[in-house]
Description:
By secondary structure, the protein is mostly beta strands. The chain has two helices and seven strands; from the N terminus they run H-E-E-E-H-E-E-E-E. It has a four-stranded antiparallel sheet. 30% of the residues are buried.
Amino acid sequence: QLGVGSGDDVLRTFTADQTLHGRHFVVGVACGRQHAVAVTASGFVYVTGDNRYGQLGLTSEETQAAPHKAPSTVNRFTRLQLPGPCVGVACGTFSTFFVLRDGSVFGCGNNDFGQLGILPPSSVVSP
């Protein structure tokens, strides 16, 4: 979930600038149980880590139809496409929420107890 290219524990410090290749200025970071999300000043979102519940939001309609195509783990920060610039992010244990500049909120991940605020309770794999 550190986005450094492996699932190994890291006992040294690193900067998000290194993992995002110096292209983006990170203004916010949130972490779930085994995933992390970074938001840039430009409103881009990068995700990494465990995706077993769709908490990275990387699953499309195509991969929903064939779940084996969705990555269960992402070892490097990967850009997530959202419908607009992101200004805030929060993570639950196995879920992620995105606040866009226009005020809309998107969530993805585990929804077994309705934590995404939608019914019926089931996981949502794309924002």
